[in-house]
From TrEMBL:
It catalyses: Eliminative cleavage of (1->4)-alpha-D-galacturonan to give oligosaccharides with 4-deoxy-alpha-D-galact-4-enuronosyl groups at their non-reducing ends. The lineage of its organism: Eukaryota, Viridiplantae, Streptophyta, Embryophyta, Tracheophyta. This is Pectate lyase. The keyword Signal applies. Pathway: Glycan metabolism; pectin degradation; 2-dehydro-3-deoxy-D-gluconate from pectin: step 2/5. Transmembrane segments: none annotated. Residues 1-27 form the signal peptide. InterPro entries: AmbAllergen (IPR018082), Pec_lyase (IPR002022), Pectin_lyas_fold (IPR012334), Pectin_lyase_fold/virulence (IPR011050), PEL (IPR045032).
Length: 456
């Protein structure tokens, strides 16, 4: 009997030790709350209207230059350094901060990180910890106050009214921007953003439409989430404010939905984009550390341009992740069209294209993994890939590969290159899921119909 009691006692002690170890491990892994200047709820806190006393009355007499020699202090002066920083972060975070904390098992690591939390609206800033891919370190306005947009107007792009979206995005301090109600915002001129901003459209129905759209130029750390952006038009030849202390003359803009120019650490997630004058998402002029995820693209010709020109060599350091997007009805080409750089195209659903899906020139490295490509009926448009204005003797050495992709209805991907491991390592930003999961992973692509008090 003494031996039995001793055995039971030892078993109980072992169980208590295991429980204690489990508690210690969980406490060690629990993430501290993000520090925030404003502890108020994002939906119930006071509106922030920053002081405009620092407005500049000085008029810029010349157009803001688009030349590389004219980069301002926010420009990406060292794209190679940004590449190294992103790669180091990926190496040091193989489990991506335990993204399954609220997991509801969709297989989409971004959505599983936050969507199953019924109190998502009180924990909005958790989104900033859910990024993946090359733009995973974009924190947006996580460390700033909430700013509630109450006014859809855009009457004066030089002196925007407090409460408008333009007034919010130009501020110098980090801000997490939310919306009081459903609204359609028709911008008179480009919405020129400042660094460390999140535009968060969850919980309401926000359209940026029928005017100018979003410009991310020479800045860093921006998150664009939950917007409907469509029918963007060319604008310009006008004065536009870009910060509380500066406004200047803008030449004509192309009419992109989201234009990323000389910027880094950018995350464009869960937006619905369509029918714009030029591109839906364009990234050029040394931009890097970008993730384009969970978006729904539709009814557009040239969807996505990544790389300024064949001769612009600074884009050789560009790294972009394109993940979990749905390329849907009415699309024709450029999903994306790449120059130079490194591009990870992973777990996207391509259900429509008329010319081609993925194209490029100037020797980009394209790593296509776990995507679903459904070719159109047209027998002459079955090829996923297109080398733009380049002969085979040149492009045969480019590193383009298809790995684990599901090719349907006669779709085919033309690979090239020797498969240099170092090149593909720089075009790898997360682990690809099986292509059989693409339908479920991308089922929520686009702006989500989130409602307060419910899982989104």
């Amino acid at each position: 009997m003494d031996a039995v009691r001793r055995l039971r006692w030892l078993s109980a002690c072992s169980l208590m030790a295991l429980l204690l170890l489990f508690v210690v491990v969980m406490a060690g892994e629990e993430k501290p709350e993000n520090s925030s200047i404003n502890s108020n709820s994002s939906d119930g806190g006071a509106e922030l209207h920053l002081d405009e006393s620092s407005k500049s009355s000085k008029n810029s007499s010349m157009a803001e230059s688009w030349e590389v020699d004219e980069l301002n202090e926010h420009a990406v002066d060292d794209p190679e350094g940004v590449v190294a920083m992103v790669e180091e972060s990926i190496r040091n975070s193989t489990d991506r901060r335990k993204l399954g904390f609220f997991s509801c098992g969709t297989g989409n690591p971004i959505d599983d990180c936050w969507r199953c939390d019924p109190n998502w609206q009180r924990n909005r800033k958790r989104l900033a910890d859910c990024g993946i891919g090359f733009g995973r370190n974009a924190i947006g306005g996580r460390d700033g106050r909430f700013y509630m947009v109450t006014d859809p107007g855009d009457d004066d792009p030089v002196n925007p009214r407090p409460g408008t979206l333009r007034h919010a995005v130009i501020q110098d301090k980090p801000l997490w921007i939310v919306f009081k109600r459903d609204m359609v915002i028709t911008l008179k001129q480009e919405l020129i953003m400042n660094s460390f901003k999140t535009i968060d459209g969850r919980g309401v129905n926000v359209h940026i439409a029928n005017g100018a759209c979003i410009t991310i130029q020479f800045i860093t750390n921006v998150i664009i989430h939950g917007l409907h952006i469509h029918d963007c038009r060319p604008t310009g030849n006008a004065m536009v404010r870009s910060s509380p202390s500066h406004y200047g003359w803008r030449t004509m803009a192309d009419g992109d939905a989201v234009s990323i120019f000389g910027s880094s650490h950018i995350w464009v997630d869960h937006n619905s984009l369509s029918k714009c004058a030029d591109g839906l998402v364009d990234a050029v002029m040394g931009s890097t550390a970008i993730t384009i995820s969970n978006n729904h693209f539709a009814h557009h010709n040239e969807v996505m341009l990544l790389g300024h020109s064949d001769s612009y060599v600074r884009d050789k350091q560009m790294q972009v992740t394109i993940a979990y997007n749905h390329f849907g009805e009415g699309l024709i080409q450029r999903m994306p069209r790449c120059r130079h750089g490194y591009f990870h195209v992973v777990n996207n659903d391509y259900t429509h294209w008329e010319m081609y899906a993925i194209g490029g020139s100037a020797e980009p490295t394209i790593n296509s993994q776990g995507n679903r490509y459904l070719a159109p009926v047209n027998p002459f448009a079955k090829e996923v890939t297109k080398r733009v204005e380049t002969d085979m003797g040149t492009w045969k050495n480019w590193n383009w590969r298809s790995e684990g992709d599901l090719l349907l209805n006669g779709a085919y991907f033309t690979p090239s290159g020797a498969g240099a491991s170092a090149s593909y390592a720089r075009a790898s930003s997360l682990g690809a899921k099986s292509s059989s999961m693409v339908a479920s992973i991308t089922s929520g692509a686009g702006a989500l119909p989130c409602r307060r008090g419910r899982q989104c």
